[in-house]
Fold each of these.
Amino acid sequence: MSQPLLSVETINAGYGLVSVLHDVSISVMPGEIVCLIGSNGAGKTTLLRTISGVLTPASGSVRLDGADLTGAGTKAIVRAGIVHVPEGRRLFAGLSVRENLLMGAYLRGAGTPEVRRDLDRVLATFPRLAERASQDASTLSGGEQQMCAIGRGLMAAPRLLMIDELSLGLAPKVVDELVETLAAINKSGTAILVVEQDVATALALAQRGFVLDTGRIVASDSTRALAESPEIQKAYLGAELELAG
Amino acid sequence: MLALQILVNGILLGGIYASIAGGFSLVWGVLNVINILHGSFVVLGAYMAFFAYTLLGIHPYLFVPIAALLLFAIGLAVQYAIVNRVIDAPVLVSLTLTFGLTLFLDNVMLNAFKADFRKVNLRPPLGIIDVSDYLPAIDIIVPVDRLASMAFAILLVALLYWLLRRTSIGRAIVAVRMDRYAASLMGVDTRIIFAVTFGIGAAMAGAAGALLSPIFPISPLASTAYLGKAFVICILGGLGSVTGVLVGGVALGVLESFGAYIFGPEHSLTLSFTLLILLLIFRPTGLLGKRGFI
Ligand SMILES: Nc1ncnc2c1ncn2[C@@H]1O[C@H](COP(=O)(O)OP(=O)(O)O)[C@@H](O)[C@H]1O
Ligand SMILES: [Mg+2]
């Protein structure tokens, strides 16, 4: 078996005295799309923050391609190839779409030929962003903002793209579009770790999934197996149906 | 004609004011630090220009970039070593800290340079332009030193705008201002951006000081007046916005100019603070009414 691209081992992390994650281990193989599901407050965002270096774990380790990145800080971790697209998009208002995208390449230097090529590529991937490239990012619709946030992440030329709450607040049609684009991005070699509340979307997008519940991993399997598991159905899919009904 | 002359005087003054406020507004907007040191930085820049001219014969306008560089270094050091420690504390903490640093710096300058008001007397003086020589219908005069200082001041503010909008570090400054957390996810080291921003604010102050050295008297006692003007301009024009600084600067310049004519020059500061209070009551987002845009 090949070596995992990302391997998180028995992480314990939280905020100050509040510990949120308990012995969490996950992995992402090269070229894989993995989803992380779990209800509100389960610790999904906290896990992404620990991987991207915003939080330093109390114990455990984060490795990318075998290299230890535990506690290395966001700058080193972005450089190493892990990018975290935050929950709520968090684009820079007051900067144009193009300027937002260029911020994603901050550590690579904005003027280099590679960055310019990647900018063209991102704009080709998201034609709607190309149309609005000089517009203030705060004028975008929700779906366009998510595209811009993902594009900004891609501008760092990541090996692993982590997206928190991909579909939150977006129309189903836009979500389908995003799922398709992410599959294409993944085909060109970027591994993806996606946090998704909408379990149906998560299972459609990813090959493998982890289920987080109050700071612990309670299930991990192929998405197909997860979709068929009675517990998952009861805990997440059922709840969805109730909400929808 | 008198009204036109007063208006022109006000605009000339306002351009120079804009350069005083630019750095202050930047630091306030990005770091959420009300930098009480700013006025003292202006005075320090003016003293540097004064001594560069009297001792070395360097023209104040040529000295502007040097003053900017020196103050940039000082600002960077002060921020990184001292102000960074309280950057996440409430705004009153950093205000108190920079207030203390101002007392220190002003007293050091008082000891070193004494309280006498000095001024760069350009030799030969730049003279005045009598507009009626060219346009007989318009009977106003324009002092060349004020005109030149204003032109350079506006150039300085334009340079700040260019820096913020067209360079990578400038974009990072704006990004940190808008969303510190998201910026750090892009790999931006916010502590370094804070230090650079503070340095740029100080550089703007130093450059403004050199620009006004041929026009206004220089003394450590003037630092509070400059700080007060920067403060009023930020409120007038809206915080952290380069266009707001220009609008606010010119508005204050024109207002002071008319106020000085009507009430007497000794009341100009009272007038600007009265305006400040009225504005805070009736239009707290500033004249332009927008907030948060560079
Ligand atoms: N900045 C914070 N400070 C303190 N506690 C936090 C913070 N952010 C999240 N938490 C707590 O951590 C737990 C997990 O939150 P989070 O990781 O955001 O969950 P999820 O993303 O799965 O909804 C929650 O109990 C939440 O209240
Ligand atoms: Mg979350």
Amino acid sequence: MKKNACILRLTDVSKTFGEMNVLNSVNIEIKAGNIVGVVGPSGGGKSTLLRCIQGLESIDSGKIEKYGRTGFMFQDFQLFPHMTVLRNLTFAPLVRSIAYTSELGITDKREAKNYIENEAMQLLRTLWIDHKASAYPSSLSGGQKQRVALARSLMMKPNILLCDEPTSGLDQTTSAEVASLLNKVNTDSGITILIASHDREFLKLVSNTIIPIGTAGDGTSPGHSTT
Amino acid sequence: MIDLLKGIKYVGSGVTLTLELLTGAFIIGFVLGGIFSIARRTRVGRPIVSGIVSVLRGTPVLLQLSVIFFTSASLTGIKLSILSAGIVTFGINSAAYVSEIFRSGIESLPRGQFEACQTLEIPRYHTWLRIILPQVFLNTLPSLINEMVALLKETAVVGMIGGMDITRSAQALAAEHYEYFIPLCIAGSYYYVLVMIIEWIGRKIEKKRVYT
Ligand SMILES: Nc1ncnc2c1ncn2[C@@H]1O[C@H](COP(=O)(O)OP(=O)(O)OP(=O)(O)O)[C@@H](O)[C@H]1O
Ligand SMILES: [Mg+2]
């Protein structure tokens, strides 16, 4: 993805839940390689925005254009509790192994498995969590779970990473750690990152741009943002 | 007086049938119950499964057994043995309860688990078989064990169509000696021991559960 090309564009995106207008004609344009923060009060629609971009939620009107794959990090991680950390990373690529490895010219099943496991271990090392590869999620701390969740979504080789409240429940030191990891991921692989957070301090640490959402009173003013 | 050892041996000859019924029916109930609980989440499947489950829970199992045993030959041309009629009946009946257990298990799983699978592009089949159902199974294990215990006791109904299970053997022994207390105590002890074993196995599996 060429740097500074538009990788994500939202045009007049609106979303209501019943009577509640959560997203009201949102316009956002994000350029490849940037780290963008979305801030707003609780209930302001940050999660909804990310979920709409990911396709977990349908939009009522408007248009979302994505030029690349998205990866998603859930606020509560949603790791698979019955699988080890390593398995959490490799399971999806393994069951999709044909789609996953054919681009690399790997057709042999065992070779694909080795490849995927190596890749996962490497990722865990990059995120300083490889010593927990065979642990179960329940035995991890919040910061460790966060890193596993990050690693798992990176296994999807996304062009755009959507992070919902990546620092919720983390102390300041750990938050700063997450910030530097996201920066590292961004620098290393050029992934565009969109972070929803109410933690302005954290966003200042990671993102080049901050987009407010659901602020102006009841969120009725359309947000126009280009980054 | 009944010779105790002989009594234990006589009633014990019914254990085989009871266990065959239990095992067969539980497997059918487990698999069919799983299928029911998933089918229930589809538009077409919901009314069908709800109807079946409602009838199965709303009529006596003795009636269901009689229907399957006495009418299968005339309705389908297949003459079922006592054992197979029992396994089929208790299995289908158990599926109704197991599907309810699985349903609440699926519903109490965080929606995010499905969504995580979606964002990771895990195919639907693998989502259910490897992510959702294993968790549901472990989370509902206590209820499943209860269902198995209930099923064990329910198999005694097979005596009504002539199956020589634990209960029926005890009754036969009692009728022969005009003495009820000891045969029925022996039968009760067999069931009790089996229940203890089932619960022990349940605890073993539960311990294997490495996460909480
Ligand atoms: N599935 C849903 N059904 C109905 N209402 C919903 C649904 N999802 C979100 N909402 C509502 O939409 C509004 C925006 O929610 P959202 O989770 O997007 O806010 P948020 O900015 O992420 O808040 P927080 O900072 O607390 O995470 C809230 O009022 C919420 O109650
Ligand atoms: Mg949120």
